[in-house]
Amino acid sequence: MQVSRRQFFKICAGGMAGTTVAALGFMPTEVLAETRNYKLLRAKEVRNTCTYCSVGCGLLMYSLGDGAKNASAHIFHIEGDPDHPVSRGALCPKGAGLLDYVNSPNRLKYPQYRAPGSTEWQRLSWDDALNRIARLMKDDRDANFIKTNEQGVTVNRWLTTGMLCASAASNETGLLDQKFARALGMLSVDNQARI
Ligand code: SF4
After folding, report:
1. N or C: which end of the chain has fewer CB within 10 A?
2. Residue ranges lining ligand 1, Cβ < 6 Å
């Protein structure tokens, strides 16, 4: 049922009866016009840390895709996290442009290996990459581990391999990295972000 704007307000002035009529959909076209849906309404929100620098600003990342097998999540909006203790919602221009970085066709999404002397990179599975890293670490540690110093004092040092961690890591991840590296005897450990 179409009513004019004037008739609609007359009906509403009738109190509950008018409200019921309106709720049942008897509203003029003008009233049916609504504002655009909030673009993040059905998005999935996750927290992360900016990958760029050692400030380690907090991010809110929004994606669409319900996780079903035939639906891949797509990040379509990134903004500063107002609850983050470091940045309180602020992002510099680099962080504010992260969406382009995330969706860049040049972004590396899987491990690659370049053999010594080769100019070609070849793609590896994560299992192969992790197995290779573990094998190389074990061989190097076995060959170079220093149990005692010149005075015979136990030092348990492994100086020929180091660990460099990325900035998109929390305090908790950093703590685990430290425990892992120190337990192996590694002294050279650094992280891009001191967060
Ligand atoms: S938003 Fe800017 S200042 Fe913050 S971590 Fe990213 S690059 Fe650094």
Report:
1. N
2. 50, 52-53, 55-57, 87, 91-92, 94-95
Q: What is the pLDDT confidence band of residue 55, given thresholds at 50, 70 and 90?
A: confident
The atom number, within ligand 1, closest to the CA of 167 reads: 5
Label residue 78 exposed, middle or buried (CB < 10 Å: 0-12, 13-18, 19+): buried
Listed by start position, the domains of the chain span 1-34, 44-102, 109-139, 145-195
The tokens describing 101, both together, are: 């970085």
Q: CA-to-CA distance for 177 and 16, rounded, in angstroms?
A: 64
- pTM, to two decimals: 0.63
- Asked if the 44-102 domain carries CATH number 2.20.25.90, the reply is yes
Angle of helix 5-13 versus helix 16-23 axis, rounded to 10? 130
Tokens describing residue 39: 């673009």
Burial class of residue 101, CB neighbours in 10 A (0-12, 13-18, 19+): middle
